[in-house]
Amino acid sequence: MQSEYLQPIKKSIIESLASRVNARSLFHSTEFYEGKIIENKKFDLFILGVNEDRFRPEYAGCKEAPDAVRAELYSLIKPRKDLSILDLGNIEAGAAIRDTHFALTQVLSPLLKQKSIVVLIGGSQDLIAAQYAAFQGVGPNLQVVVVDAKAEMQMYEDKNANNYLPNIISHEPDYLFNLTQAAYQGYYVEPETYDAFERMNFDMLRLGSLRGNIQEIEPYLREAQMLAFSIKAIRGSDAMGQIKPSPNGLTGEEACQITRYAGMGTDLRCVGFFDYNPTMDNNGASALLLAQMIWYFIDGFTTRKLDYPAAESKDYLIYRIPISSLNEDLTFYKSVLTDRWWMEIPYPHERSKHQGKFLMPCSYKDYQTAQNNEIPDRWMKSYQKLI
Question: Which of 54, 211, 213, 270 has a CA positioned 20 to 30 A from the CA of residue 87?
Fold first, then answer.
């Protein structure tokens, strides 16, 4: 980790927290970087802020987000399970936006290679591209979930000014296996974006499809290594601290459920929160919501279970569904411990870790789709990418 890019949190902030928080708060489970890396100690989780907001003029003020969220986060009561957190402080804005992006990748990449769990607090949404770039060299077949009201694929002459999606998709080398855009709102998405996602067999989950069915996002988060969450996906009545709050979007409760699912995902390494602007917040309510979302991520992390179906295990049920358009049955696995589902996809044996079978997380709804003699959309997309 490149510690020269890190700026410790101001002592006045830490002293203020120490004077007012509960003895059982997250503050007392956290150590704070003071200019020297703490050696020979294992931490369960790292928190990192990025003070960058120059992506576009309307994002001015987002650089104040990390400390505003911390002020609320560390006052929350810690989950039942003991854990050790290291707050790495903030990455200050560099001379140019690309310098901030470079610093973020330099700090984040070693942590990811060590399989650390990192909570990233931005800052403007352009940092999502740098969050993704930090996974280079971590491993192939990266799975990413982005929660955002908009899916913007516009390319600009200045690559540093591009929206994050083009920067992720065009990144070289290419290690992206799947990208899921969740909670998007159709009136913000151009037809060409739908076409691009369809062409690349990526997934799009419309806000309306998640309303009342928020559990449908869980399988995507269970296999993801990265989650990026823009506060713009949350409706303005629940999160006023954003640019041009929308009357539509996720509720605060739905946002917290999503981050808890992410924490439960055994592969997830980095969750990032972006676009919160304290200068537009009303009594700090949006900062408190983001703090609660992080709390739910941590709570989910403390309950992680390794329930991936294994050949020698009896802790799951197997269901085989005949599909008339296929030459073989669709096979589903259900954990009797967690009630989570997987579906089996044919996979070349030499590339498989499960005896020639690729097991993809799915939902009960996918199983119901197969019972109706239909191939689940996620099965088909993954099959097309694997063959």
Answer: 54
